[in-house]
User: What shape does this take?
Amino acid sequence: MAATAVRYLRSVGAPTTGPVEALPRPELRAVGDDERAPLDPAEFRRVLGNFATGVTVITAPPRTPDEAPAGFACQSFSSLSLDPPLVSFMVARTSTTWPRIARAGVFCVNILGADQGGLCRGFAVSGADKFAGVAYDAAPVSGSPRLAGAPAWIDCTVHAVHTGGDHLIVVGRVDALGTADTDAGPLLFHRGGFGRLTH
Assistant: This one.
């Protein structure tokens, strides 16, 4: 879809490279209690759980030699822009891992394969040594952990961070990316559990 949008913009003579003028920032304000929809959070999760997503682990390098790398499991990842190459993910404002990634200013998206549910669970736990027993090497630009066995990886620099309710929307500029020599299908998350594609 991004490629189609770029072709359309070029066909009408719109610039698709170079600096992009930012839109005016919206006025930010707190939402009043009388403006909140009477929505049950459990029902919200149940209904939205019908949308299957891929699963990733977002990692960042340590800032000092005695610090461990940072990482967390994330299902709210997506491609965002082809020109320039941007991706995005969402993270809870209460995350204790996000501040470490923000300080690093870089991250690697590890797209998990169908057999990596256990790895995902390890990175979903708060406060544990998430990298204990996990094989990885360094992504080529950021040095962020690139997890062994992940079918694909995307090495990024933090480009922008936007507010989105109780989450932050993180935009990353892609510096490098690649795939592993594996034919594993994707790990999917659907209705609160892991699944896989069947053909």
